[in-house]
Each structure stands twice: as C-alpha cells, then as structure tokens.
Amino acid sequence: MLKNFRLIAAALFFLLTTLLFLDFTGVIHQWFGWLAKIQLIPALLATNVIMITAIVILTLFFGRIYCSVICPLGVLQDGVSHLAGRIKGKKNRFRFVPAKSWLRYGILVLFFIAFVAEVSVFVSVLDPYAAYGRVASNFFSPLYRQGNNLLAFFAEKIDSYSFYSTEVWIKGWITFGVAVITLFTVGFLAWYNGRTYCNTICPVGAFLGFLSRFALLKLTVNREKCTECRRCERNCKASCINVSTMNIDHSRCVGCFNCTKACQSDAIQYTFPKAADKNQNTDKNIPVTIKNNLNSLSRRGIIFLLVTLFFTKTLKAQQKLQGDGGLATIEDKKIPNRKTPIVPPGALGVKNMKTHCTACQLCVSACPNNVLRPSEKLATLMQPEMSFERGYCRLECTECSQVCPAGAIKPITRAEKTAISIGSPVFIKEKCIVNIDKIQCNVCERHCPTGAITRVDSEPNNKNNTLKIPVVNKELCIGCGACEHLCPARPFSAIYIEGNLRHHSS
Amino acid sequence: MENNNNNNNNNNNNKNEISRRNFFKIAGTTAVGTTAAIYGCKPDNKSSMTGGSADEVPTDKMTYRINPNTGDKVSLLGYGCMRWPLRQKADGNGEEIDQDAVNELVDYAIAHGVNYFDTSPVYVRGWSETATGIALKRHPRDKFFIATKMSNFSDPSRQASIDMYNNSFKVLQVDYCDYYLMHNIGPGEGIATFRKRFIDNGILDFLIEERKAGRIRNLGWSFHGDVKVFDYVLAMDVKWDFCQIQLNYQDWQHANSVKNVRVKNVNAEYLYGELVKHKVPAVVMEPLLGGRLARIPSQALSLMREVRPESSAAQWAFRYAGTPENVLTSLSGMVYIEHLQENIRTHAPLVPLNEQEYKTLDKVTEILIDSDYIQCTECQYCMPCPYGLDIPGTFGHYNRCVSAGKILKNANDENYKKARREFLIGYDRSVPKLRQANHCTNCNKCEPKCPQRVEIANEMQRVDLYAERLKQNLDF
To answer: What is the complex's ipTM, to 2 decimals?
Structure first.
C-alpha cells in the first residue's frame, strides 16, 4: 500500500520533472515549473527559506521520502536497479552492508565547504538534481526533440502545423562528458547495488540521512512477528536492514517501503518508533517491481542519438556556377573570444550566476533561441552562458528567467528585459563586409532593438565612397546579440557582444 | 495546380454504368479536386493526380500555330526548361538534375504533341542545356524545335559570347538551332547594356551570319523591363523572326499598376501590339507568373468558378495567353507530370476566351492588383545570393500565404493565432533560418538581375518586418 503510493508519486514527479527538460514550447514550465524549485540544492542556492524548511520538516516527519519521490536522480536509480533485477532475473538480491559514514559525511563536509567558498563546479557536479538535469538535457531531450522532428516531418507532409521541427545539437561537449560519466557511475552503482550512490556519495542524501535519524515516523521491526526470513534485508536497495542485529539504519533508509511489502508476516511497520519496540529491528522484505521503465531508453537511446546527430548535420549548400539559381554556402559562425561571459538578463551579473547556479541545464534546455549553452571554463563549468551563433536573445522571450529554480536567473518581465544591459558591442572595422566586399549593408542597424547602432560614412573625406559603416553607442546597447547573430561576416562577426560583469539598466 | 477537373468530367461523362471501381475512382478524383482547390501556405503546390488520367490526356489534339517565316508548326504549349526537377546526389554532396525525370517529362510531352523546348546556358545553375540535350537526343531531330539563348550577362566579351554559343550546340547535341534568342534584353542600363552585349562586340552580326549559314533557323530576343530598349531593338534594321515577351492577364494592362517594383514592367498589350504591327510572332513567357496565377486568392477563384465551374486558374491563364493569334507558343516550366498533363489538356485543343470570360479576368486582375503579392515569379535569376539567402523561397512563401488569404492585416484579426503559427512554421519549413529575410544585407546585388524589377531588398525587409511582428506578438 505504502509502496504503491510511493511508486505512483515517484513516477509522477519523475515524469513531470523530466518533461521540464524536454519541453521546448514553454507550456510544461507554466504548469510544473515549481517542480524544479522544490529541489533542495536549488532551494538552498535561491535561499528559498520556505522550501528548505519544508524539506527539513518533511524529512523530520517521514524520513527520506524526498530521496524516494522528489529527487529525480534517486528515482532514476530505482528504475535502473529494478531493470537490473528484471534482467538478471533475481529477486532478493541485496544484502546488508555497513554504512560508509566517513565517506558520505566527508563528502558532505567538502560539499559544504565548496558551497560556502563558492567552488561552483564541485557543487554542481554533486547536486543530484543538477546531475539528473544534465542527463535529461543531454540524452533525453535530444531524443525527445528528434521524435518531435519526426512528427513535424510527417505533419509537413500532410500540411499540418501541429508540430514544428527544432534544432538538435550538443550544446557543450564537457557537459555532455560529465553527463555521460554521471549516468555511467550512477547507473553502474544502481545496477549492482541499488541506492549505493545516495548513501555514499550524494551530499543531499547524507544531509537528509542525518536528519532522518531523528524522524518521527520510522520503519521498525516487530521482533515478535519477525521470522528472520531476511526477505526485507534481501530487498532493501539501500542495504540498510540488518536482520542479524534486527537493526535498520535510518540514515540510509530512503523510505521506499519495499520491505513492508516484502514482509510476509507484517513485522515491519511504518510507525512512531517509541510506540514499537525500542530496539530497532526489521523483518523481511520482498521487493516488488518499480513501474518505471523510462530509463530503459538510455543505452539504446545513446546509440540512436549519435546516429541521428550524424544525420542531422545542418544542411550545407553547394556549387559555384555561372548559372542562375542554387544557394551559396553559408559558413558556420565561430564563437568570438569574449573576455567576460554573457549571462542572461535576470542573472544580475557574472558573480550572481556563478554563486547561485547549480548547472542543472534547465535554462539551457528551455532556451528557444539556441543562445544558452553550458560554459566550458573551469570556474563556471557547465553553468549557462550565452553566445549568438545560432540565434540571439529575442526581446519577447524571458523563458530562462522563468524556469531557473536556483535564483541564478531571477524572474523578469518582457518590459524589464528591454531595459537590462547584459553586454556591450564591439565593432571590428576590418571584418565588416562593407569594407571587405565594398557593398552596403545595414543588417545590424536594422535589427538593433534599442537604436544603439547607427551608420556613418566609411570614408568621410572621400566623396566617391558613399558606403556607410556602423558605429555603436554602448550606452544604449542591451547586449541582445541581434547584431552579432545577423552580421553577414563569417566565421567571425564584425560586431560582437562582450558581457557586462554586472548587468545594469540601459 | 489542379488537374482534376477535366478528369472529373471524363469520368462523369461515361458513368452510364457505374461499377464499384468506377465509383471509387470518381469519388477519389472528386475529393482530390476539392482539396486541391484549398490552398495553404504550403512550401510547394504539389498537387496529386489520381486514377488512370494518363490515358485520358489527348495525344492528337494539340493546337499548333504556324510560324510565318519558316512554316514551322509549333505547339501552342511550349516547354520551358528553366525548372527541371532536381535530386540529391548519390554521394549526398549537393544536388543534380534528375535526368530520369527529365527524360520522362520530355518523352511524355513529345508523345502528346509538345514540340517547342526553350532553354538557356544559365538555366538551372547552368545544367539545363545539357539535361535538355540528353533528353531530346533520344528523339528524331525533326520532332522538336529547340530554343536557346545568348545569356552573356556576366561576361559580354566577344570571345566569351561565342564560346557560350558554341557550347550550346555541343551540350544540346544539335548542329542547328531552331530558335535562338538574345536573352533578357532591357535590364541594366537599358540601351547601353544592350549595345554592350550585342552591338559593340559584334555578336548580333555574328548571329545574323549564323542565321545565313543555316545554323540558326529563327533569330529573336527575349524582353524584360525598359520599353525604350524594346522600341529600339524592334526598330533596328534586322529581320526579327520572333520575339519573346511576358504576357498574361495581369501584365496585359496592369504591368505598371503593381506595387513595389523598381521599374514598372511594360504592358503586354503594348508589346504584343507592336509585334503584330511589325509582323513578328510572339513567344509568351510567364503566362502563369511563376505559378502565381495558378494560386490566386479564393475570392478571385470563385469569380472564375461562377463562369466555368470545372476550370482551374492555370487553365484560364493559359487560355488567356494562347488566345491572341500572333502567339506562337506559351512557355511553361513544368516540373511535375501532373502539371504537364493538365497543361496539355488545356492546349489540346485550346479553347479561346470569349467576351464574358475576358470580363471575368478583368475583375480577377483587379483583385490581384489590390493583393499584397510580391511580384516574384521564382525564376531564380537573382540566385545565388552572395550571402546565402533564399530570395525566391522567401517570396514564394509570402505569396502563397497571400493566395491563401493568410496574411494578417492587423493583430486583431480573428484568425491571428492560427495564421501566425502557419506563417512562422511554414516560413521555417520553406526557408532555412540562416537564409531568411532577416539576413538580407541590403547590398542590392540581386536587383539588377531581376526580370520583374522587384525591389528585392525592400521586399525582403517587408517580409522580415511582418515575420518580426508575428514573432514578437506586436500590435499592428
């Protein structure tokens, strides 16, 4: 009963949280954006006192329910573990293992130090929610989008506008690599040992485990009823039930209720421990199935993903002939060497981003303009930064600021956005096609939303030259990148945006 | 284009005995006919054609016109070889002409009485002559007339021009050319450009010599743009065997009423009248304005349907172009066999327009002139754009939305949400993002190449502005 309830809740949370990373239309975020905000580390980073208190109280009442239901990485592990059991055809495959407390508390202490010292890489690698976010945005999201593109392809055939195709690309190879390692490590541990990761490495697990020692409701063994069949121990994926000593290690118990369901003599009860036997004992567990097959996608998924990526290489044009028609080749843009990274409006500045972001990639997945991607610099590794090779930060969009659960990008309105300057323009005369191709061009001026670009005579003293080149007014620029993205100079734009260390009003 | 109406007729005529199969056949074609009438902002107007219609395209009823100079019996439907079908190369590295499809189309056309094939060294990225040559080589030389052109725009030097001339014979695999044209006279600096291309380098004299030698059977020219050049060339002391002009019901009297073109086109009424005066047979190009007259707005189409319920807009346009007696042939660049079939039916035989129908077309023209069309016929002359834009693709998408009545006048339109979505999604489907109007640099390299004198840069900005309004959900 309890277990079924847990299963349904976990599946629901997991599915919806995953959808946050998949949906690129913004609809899911409108309804379920809060799911990211109830995650512990983002709440801590956002100093969301209410949410932190809520999680602490929840744990003090019910134990580590959070780990079983809310944490998507935890549910992912349950899925993998269940699948392993199915494939190996083994029931009762766990056994009690003593706690490696020095390791988990050691990591927790390190994590705490890193958190305070703002070593954001360490924090974001270990945050289970962010780790799952990276997995979802790097593996599940491309698959989801590819599926969508397939539907869009057929929709186009029948002149339907229900689906439109979307770009699929690996936004940062380092982040992709970290996601691969995360998935492999977590997957490996879950495959062989259930919740090992949560009880040895995860700092959230360690923290909540510490709290749940004092939880009001606990699983306890009724010694009188217990037949020492060890079903519970053999089904505890947290490996925290020791039938020999009749002990349950509550700091490691994630409240999955597999044991209660496994026990045939009703010897395990979820109750106030005082009311039960003072000694903590347990009975038996028979694990039942976790109805979560979502993760079976991953291996086949990766292959499919790589194959599709191979085939979706952006279209390239061809030919150079004297005849009419055809399309000129368009060279890919390259990222200019920016001294200061550009972070989205709402982030307040580079520092705020660095100290608050947990690198979950939610904003990166949500960005409809392909502007956000994870940073490749060590100090801000995997945290979002902007670049304009594939699009620019369109004025009407505030998507990233709406989804951020960690307060790294604060919610802003469309009106506010038009007045936030996140960067300023740099014009490189030598790269401008007006000077290179000797033709007129007004793309940057035309698309500047704030009129920060005007054009002046390229050679004021030469009457024969009527060509005009842009001049920029840094005071007016908000750093949206329209000029950089649309600039016809390739591979490097003749005008690019340098980030503002601290955002200011324009 | 719709090809199914005749089809329906045919089916309906012999339905004395309706078997089940016939019933489905009729039901099927009717359904297709109905759906084809509803246009959308589609990337292409591929229409489907069903049910045994291939057999019903007459092979022996083509209308022919006699060329008074040579006595050539020319089919009133001419094949424009400017839009041959393309396919992806086997190695995935770019595109090439789909020669199998070209052969199929040419075979079909010849089998059904089409005998005039019009190409140029620059058509289809310079591949058209070769492909046309390969396809025609498979037929007896006296079964077809071939027309090609001196397209010496980029290099008007004598040597380059003569090389171009000789190469045409080589790749077309012929030793004489039936119709040879000085290509696209009128644009650029007008008479000066004409003189540079044909007089100063002695190419016109060269061509006249070639005609004497029998290698050119008919010498003429194609015209766009500045009427001074037309008058100038027509008045020259040269015997012109034919002349190619743009003629359709919009251009007859309203070539200079359309908006947003740099130099107004000349009314076809004038051009045609002059040709009649000078006894020069006319070859008609753009009878459909690049397909635009086949996809007219629904209120215009219903005007036509009131008079002839079963006729398609394309049929009307061809009948308009073919009715004047001095027209030798109307050129149509047919990519799909279905278009070819429909056009053959229209011309086999061609039924001239009557008074009432002319009046209907006047009303249709009024609607067209008032519409928001960009005057682009998707001829690809402007391409490739040096900055990679797809100009005809962008304009084509816009025009299709105009035809479908899906361009919004303002943000309060009741269809706003739907039309916005269709325009934007359809835009991305028709034109890759990097090739869309917002990337236009305004460099104006394309405008001199446009035979329709579209103010390309301005029109690109118009499309861009419209798309931006929709994207930003702006009030307008």
So the answer is: 0.78
